[in-house]
């Protein structure tokens, strides 16, 4: 199957969805109105509430939501073939993910930038607000651990990637001071400086990696975890304009630029998808994902189709920076569509590898038992229709400069090789496979790391709101002692998960938690529609809610019985098994409570939430 009709078809569907479906939601369901004041104006403090240019904010928001999910999820789901992931990405993002992000962002903007948990409390019930707050704290820690783990695996022992990603931090600090202090409002000038600086960092990283200076930047897994935790803490405490916004804006250039180049590359090179539409592992038993196609493909590909983590960003930092209501359409719906495109090109890049090479890279081969299991896997699947004998693995090792690509699980290496092969096939860019591969590794790490800083900041807002019920000062986002304490708690929690986990144990739990959070957010969005008197439009959120909730609850049950609980029978993995089982069960229970409470609310069996004078209704018609 050639990739050209796939990428063109996906882009056409996504463009139509933005032009018509998002316009319908903006006009009929949300009734966006630029004359309505927004929190960045009414609550301006120059720290967290700050009106921001929509293009800068688009870059910040896209950088914040685009973490490991749209890159790694499609690569792992390629085990089932290219078609299941492709359909879920295109259909899911248009009808589910983009709607989810848009609705929550608009709701938060009209509620003074309140978090998802606070909106659940006021729109559904105090019980749902309490349960949502507790569940979100669990979910965000798991999500950040899942995202952070991929960064650690991508940058470990990679001086090129480590230097380049590290260089973006002082560069972003300079851009922030330039745009907001030295040359106020000179966004174009700062952007040019940022692009030049970023290209210089990529070039210099390659020189350092080949010099004697490589050793200080060649860091172990545990060292990277500590450094990343320190960065997440600092980024969470500093003002958004100083580091968070300019860094995400800067990295968005690399993200969007690389994705656009990759789309052009797919169109020009038109690579063949060597992975079949469906593989024998759709029935289960695959080495990458142990479960069957249904329901596991829908939790393996989370971000890119629909992601509950986005609800934390859409009700966290971004609504506090929206300059006018109509900006939410481009930033909320548009950013998610862009992430869907990222997922599609990641899937194309991964499935352009031969099946034998894909599974040689993504099957663990660290122990003798794992090596024997891999040999058995290859012997079992060596037919003409689906052959797992490696085809180009030795050539890929030589061209990429990597000594060993076998058993490099996690998806990052697979994606980097797929991207490098496509770039290397573009006329005029050939013969640079080694540089393209390391550029792709750096791109993936930077793509994911921007989610860590924003996610940590959002999480400390959540901890502060929850802690404010016991100590009022914690609820004040600008109170420095509270910011320090809440940020430290969040960072310590997700760093501990990364320290003790692996991609096989964290990613399934991350997918379940992420999708159940999306179901909770869709419950809130549906309740907002119901409370506004526009129940005839409730299908906009009810349809994706019904699919995501049922599918993810089934996946949660299967994960506990087939993946997590068996870990408890092994003495070496028993602790991890009990933790995974317990947390997954808690998240499932919390989501079920909120869903039942929401249904009762919709049916009118519970009293309507009290609307205070400071709470804006989401739509033109008041509650």
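^ structure tokens above, recovered residues below v
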């Amino acid at each position: 199957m050639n990739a050209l009709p796939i990428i063109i078809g996906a882009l056409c569907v996504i463009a139509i969805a933005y032009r018509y479906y998002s316009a319908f939601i903006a006009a009929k369901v949300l009734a966006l109105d630029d004359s309505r004041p927004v929190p960045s104006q009414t609550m301006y403090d120059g720290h967290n509430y700050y009106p921001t240019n929509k293009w800068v904010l688009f870059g910040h928001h896209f950088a914040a939501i685009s973490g490991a999910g749209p890159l790694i999820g499609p690569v792992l789901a390629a085990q089932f073939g290219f078609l299941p992931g492709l359909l879920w990405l295109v259909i899911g993002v248009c009808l589910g993910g983009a709607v989810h992000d848009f609705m929550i962002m608009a709701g938060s903007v009209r509620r003074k930038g309140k978090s998802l948990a606070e909106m659940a409390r006021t729109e559904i019930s105090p019980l749902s607000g309490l349960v949502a707050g507790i569940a979100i704290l669990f979910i965000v820690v798991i999500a950040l651990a899942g995202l952070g783990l991929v960064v650690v695996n991508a940058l470990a022992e990679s001086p090129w990637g480590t230097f380049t990603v590290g260089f973006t931090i002082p560069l972003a600090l300079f851009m922030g001071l330039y745009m907001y202090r030295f040359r106020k409002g000179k966004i174009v000038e700062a952007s040019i400086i940022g692009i030049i600086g970023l290209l210089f960092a990529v070039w210099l990283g390659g020189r350092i990696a080949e010099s004697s200076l490589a050793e200080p930047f060649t860091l172990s897994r545990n060292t990277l975890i500590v450094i990343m935790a320190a960065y997440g803490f600092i980024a969470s405490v500093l003002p958004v304009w100083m580091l968070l916004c300019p860094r995400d804006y800067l990295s968005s250039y690399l993200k969007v630029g690389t994705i656009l180049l990759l789309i052009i590359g797919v169109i020009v090179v038109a690579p063949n998808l060597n992975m079949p539409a469906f593989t024998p592992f759709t029935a289960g038993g695959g080495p990458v994902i142990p479960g069957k196609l249904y329901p596991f493909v829908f939790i393996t590909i989370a971000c890119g189709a629909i992601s509950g983590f986005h609800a934390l960003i859409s009700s966290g930092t971004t609504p506090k920076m929206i300059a006018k209501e109509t900006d939410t359409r481009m930033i909320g719906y548009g950013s998610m569509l862009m992430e869907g495109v990222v997922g599609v090109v990641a899937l194309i890049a991964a499935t352009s590898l031969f099946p034998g090479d894909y599974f040689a890279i993504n099957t663990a081969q660290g122990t003798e038992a794992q090596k024997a299991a891999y040999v058995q896997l290859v012997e079992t699947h060596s037919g003409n229709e689906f052959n797992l004998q490696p085809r180009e693995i030795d050539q890929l090792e030589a061209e990429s400069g990597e000594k060993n690509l076998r058993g490099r699980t996690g998806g990052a290496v697979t994606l980097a090789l797929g991207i490098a092969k496509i770039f290397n096939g573009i006329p005029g860019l050939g013969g640079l496979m080694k540089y393209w591969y390391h550029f792709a590794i750096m791109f993936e790490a930077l793509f994911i790391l921007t989610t860590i800083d924003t996610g940590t900041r959002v999480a400390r807002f959540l901890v502060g709101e929850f802690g404010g019920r016991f100590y009022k000062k914690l609820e004040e986002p600008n109170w420095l002692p509270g910011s320090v304490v809440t940020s430290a708690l969040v960072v310590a929690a997700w760093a501990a998960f990364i320290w003790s986990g692996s991609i096989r144990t964290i990613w399934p739990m991350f997918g379940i938690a992420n999708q159940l959070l999306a179901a909770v957010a869709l419950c809130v969005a549906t309740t907002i529609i119901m409370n506004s008197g526009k129940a005839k439009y409730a299908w906009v959120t009810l349809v994706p809610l019904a699919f995501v909730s049922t599918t993810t609850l089934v996946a949660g049950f299967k994960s506990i019985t087939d993946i997590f609980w068996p870990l408890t029978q092994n003495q070496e993995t028993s602790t991890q098994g009990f933790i995974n089982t317990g947390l997954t069960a808690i998240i499932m229970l919390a989501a079920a409570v909120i869903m039942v409470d929401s249904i009762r609310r919709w049916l009118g069996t519970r009293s309507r939430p009290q609307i205070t004078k400071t709470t804006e209704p989401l739509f033109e018609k008041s509650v």
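The chain is about 70% helix and 0% strand.
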